[in-house]
From TrEMBL:
Name used for this protein in its record: Ammonium transporter
Keyword Zinc: no
Membrane-spanning ranges: 26-48, 97-116, 123-144, 175-196, 243-262, 269-290, 296-315, 327-346, 358-388
Gene assigned in the entry: amt
Location (main, coarse): membrane
Species of the source: Corynebacterium ammoniagenes DSM 20306
UniProt record similarity statement: Belongs to the ammonia transporter channel (TC 1.A.11.2) family.
Region of interest (Disordered), ranges: 426-447
SUPFAM superfamilies for the chain: Ammonium transporter
Amino acid sequence: MLMSASLVLLMTPALALFYGGMSSRRSVLNIMMMSFGTLGVVSVVYILWGWSMSYGSQSIGGVVASPFEMFGLLRQIVDDNGNYVDGASGYANVIDIGFQLTFAVISTALISGALAERVKFSTWLIFSGAWATLVYFPLAHMVWGGGWLSHSTQSISALLFGTTGGEANVVPIDFAGGVVVHISAGAAALVLALVVGKRHSFPKSPSRPHNLPLTMLGAALLWFGWFGFNGGSAFAADGLAGLAWINTTAAAAAAMLGWMLIEAIRDKAATSLGAASGLVAGLVTITPAAGALNPLTSLMLGLIGGILACLGVGLKYKFGFDDSLDVVGVHLVAGLWGTVGVAFFATDGGMLTDDFGYGFQLLIIQTVIAVIAMIFSAAMTFIIAIALRATMGWRVDREAEATGIDLAQHRETAYETAGVSTFGTSSATMGRSGTAPILPSRTDIKE
């Protein structure tokens, strides 16, 4: 479990590489800093009140637990006798706390891709703490922490399908976070793209990825880390963890091929960006279903997920919202398909011979939790986004967006470029990263 937690922690720096390569070279540091900044903010708030709000026993209406019950993890690691507190999974509670902390971080960081190249870093940091607190922690409690959503779906099942046999006990499947992580992050990304607004160059002159090898490296590390994400969600080193591992591989590979197939048909060429995006879409697709499918059905679910996500990234051009790095297409579309699509393939223990037998009932329940999570995340994100727009403001000024948000927000650039001379500049006036000092007018700096 500690190895799994470490792998999931790696996913946030991997996301920074993935998003960084997709951004323009004048904004690469900013988008990477958004991931690293999230790692700092959400880790702190998770230790202070995130675990308590997600898994505390003092539930508030089944929506969220009290942030004060286990504030700062006092007595959640070591008891009054100096012994490590046992967790629900049969080992020390502190291990589960660390594992769940990494989920909160990556879920929040995913949203940043929708805002590339145009928002204030300080506003993003405040948003990341607020979103984790008001959206992620409540959803984690509702779905995983014994809250309202898990209980209400059983009630809905009994109401719709009767009270006889096992049909009344149909419960939602969200093995590793399709609802809590990807649908919530994707819905938040869509809302922020609408509230914050488009880049001034979108859609006439959208920036092109500046470093596709960096993006492919980030995708590879995301795939590697995802084995901790899905495999670790078995909470044991057992056959279920192994099943999640092979299902994760199957879905990612099939989705990558599905994405490239659509590119080859539509654009006459399969691209490296498509391969990287496709495998991530497959990972998103299998996340809620990794413990409920077998390798064959994982291939099928992943292939469809890759195709849908590839088509989904075009929604921003059709509807005119600027989702800079395709968070909606990859995470919301693939997350919705994985959460709902599992109902078509789910089997008990992943074996075709042990079918759940729920069929349509499970499809209804999966659709219900997907829609509730999407609406909840969208509504709360809208409130947070509007509040921040009215107070701190979201956008950098137009000049900063045009000449480079890295310089405007971080006083540094990722690369030494022609037109910025450091000749005769003393070390005292150079930035810590060795970049050239900011000139009086950034309009004179040529990329």
